[in-house]
């Protein structure tokens, strides 16, 4: 029997941040409920000042959940931190509104965490509605591997691990650097030791940073492919701005990348990121101009401008702008 917000012990506190995705809330919740049979869970939903009818839907149809309504969009990481203050579970699940779990997802992942106390964070196999595999677990980004990916020079420097290296068996449990935040199961002891998200990250890179802290504290980050979550991606972000090919908002992605590189690699890392990103954009402009790919030229020039603007606004990744 599913227990929502019960006064007794809680197996999993599910924290959901909603922003303009009222059309997904019921599907997300119904899939979660089917998956949680036999577990005591609590559902905590933070609405980040949605402009659609999310508030009405939540108040009307989610009375059993703990509801938090922000009067402005405080960002993904900060909103999850708000939810954490209400969480009582021995595990914390961060779940996106556009992520729909399978019937066995919650039970299998909680069982794995319970049987492997060295696992601090766990992610699962992700697919789109079309069944196409999505990047599920990744290597940490560095200024160098991001540069190689953007320029296509990774075929020359084959010894460098790219962030989105998909050339391996996605059917086996394996340790990795970080997992995607749409289904992010974290042990309470990890949160108690390293915290949840650094609130300087408004959107993007927050789960990368948290996985870095988790591994540094001695726990493993694990990819668990024995269950699948359907993930749409970018459903909240697209309500505010045009998305990149990777379904991200460019300016936010650039800022978060700079903040991460400055935090984890210091001033030298931020300078290296600026230098290499500039080279990548200039090379892209030159190559695309020669091939008369004018939309690509405009895209590269836009990225170059965004990067230098973000460098100034964040003081080379030393502070957030939001």
TrEMBL record:
Glycosyltransferase 2-like domain boundaries: 13-131
Top-rank taxon, per record: Bacteria
Keyword Transferase attributed: yes
Xref: SUPFAM superfamilies: Nucleotide-diphospho-sugar transferases
Any one Gene Ontology molecular-function term assigned to this protein's record: transferase activity
A Pfam family the protein falls into: Glycos_transf_2
Name of the protein: Glycosyltransferase family 2 protein
Origin species: Piscinibacter terrae
């Amino acid at each position: 029997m599913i227990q929502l917000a019960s006064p007794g012990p809680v197996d999993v506190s599910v924290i959901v941040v909603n922003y303009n995705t009222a059309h997904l809330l019921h599907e997300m919740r119904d899939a979660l409920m089917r998956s949680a049979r036999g577990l005591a869970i609590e559902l905590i939903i933070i609405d980040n000042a949605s402009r659609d009818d999310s508030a009405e839907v939540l108040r009307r149809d989610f009375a059993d959940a703990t509801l938090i309504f922000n009067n402005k969009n405080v960002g993904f990481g900060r909103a999850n931190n708000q939810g954490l203050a209400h969480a009582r579970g021995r595990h914390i699940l961060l779940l996106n509104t556009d992520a729909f779990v399978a019937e066995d997802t919650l039970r299998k992942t909680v069982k794995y965490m319970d049987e492997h106390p060295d696992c601090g964070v766990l992610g699962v196999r992700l697919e789109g509605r079309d069944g196409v595999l999505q990047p599920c677990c990744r290597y940490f980004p560095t200024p160098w591997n991001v540069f190689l990916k953007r320029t296509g020079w990774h075929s020359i420097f084959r010894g460098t691990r790219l962030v989105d290296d998909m050339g391996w068996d996605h059917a086996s449990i394996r340790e990795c650097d970080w997992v995607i935040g749409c289904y992010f199961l974290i042990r309470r002891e990890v949160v108690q030791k390293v915290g949840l998200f650094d609130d300087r990250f408004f959107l993007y890179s927050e789960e990368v940073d948290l996985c870095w802290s988790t591994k540094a504290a001695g726990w493993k980050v694990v990819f668990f492919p024995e269950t699948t979550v359907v993930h749409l991606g970018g459903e909240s972000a697209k309500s505010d701005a045009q998305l990149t090919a990777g379904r991200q908002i460019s300016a936010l992605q650039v800022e978060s990348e700079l903040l991460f590189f400055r935090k984890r690699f210091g001033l030298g890392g931020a300078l290296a990121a600026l230098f290499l990103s500039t080279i990548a954009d200039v090379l892209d402009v030159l190559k695309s101009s020669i091939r008369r790919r004018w939309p690509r030229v405009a895209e590269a020039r836009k990225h170059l401008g965004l990067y230098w603007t973000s460098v100034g606004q964040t003081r080379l990744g030393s502070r957030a702008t939001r």
